Amino acid sequence: MPTWILMIIVVMFVLSPLANAIGKAIESRASRPSVDHDEEGSQRIAGLEEQLQLLSDQVHELADKQDFLTRLLEASPELPVSAEPEDRIG
User: Fold this and answer.
1) Whole-number Å distance between alpha carbons of 79 and 75
2) What is the C-alpha to C-alpha distance for residues 46 and 40, in angstroms, rounded to an integer?
3) Per-residue pLDDT reduced to its tens digit, 56-75
4) How far, in Å, CA of 14 to CA of 10, rounded?
5) Rounded Cα gap, residues 41 and 38, in angstroms
6) Is 3 left (phi over 0), alpha (psi -120 to 50) or beta?
7) pTM, rounded to two decimals
8) What is the spatial distance between Cα 44 and Cα 34, in angstroms, rounded to a whole number?
9) Where are the alpha helices (DSSP H) in the chain?
10) How confident is the model over 22-54, as pLDDT tens digits?
11) CA distance 24 to 30
12) Sign of dihedral through CA atoms 10, 11, 13, 18?
């Protein structure tokens, strides 16, 4: 079977229905009415934004503390590391 006949068959039975389905999906999506945001959704989004801001502030605060501890450890003289702790509990 020549390759051009095989290509015609693939286009007719595979690519054409696929392109048709994609076109219908795009058309149906464009014809849908836009979603109106209700008051409850707006309040939920505002609450999420507030929580996200609080989380962001906490992350920045932790980063500042970590930077401080890193600078403090770099500035301190080296302490000897012992294999056994000197004072044990128990």
Assistant:
1) 12
2) 10
3) 999 999 999 999 998 888 88
4) 5
5) 5
6) alpha
7) 0.43
8) 19
9) 3-10, 16-31, 39-75
10) 888 888 887 777 666 688 888 999 999 999 999
11) 10
12) positive
- Tokens (6 digits) for 13: 């039975």
Return the DSSP state at 38: P
Residue showing tokens 């014809």: 31
- The owner of tokens 């801001």 is 53
Q: d(Cα 41, Cα 47) in Å, to the nearest integer?
A: 10
Which residue matches tokens 């979603």? 35
State both tokens at 71: 């600078």
For residue 2, give both structure tokens: 């020549």
Instruction: Determine the pLDDT at residue 34.
Output: 66
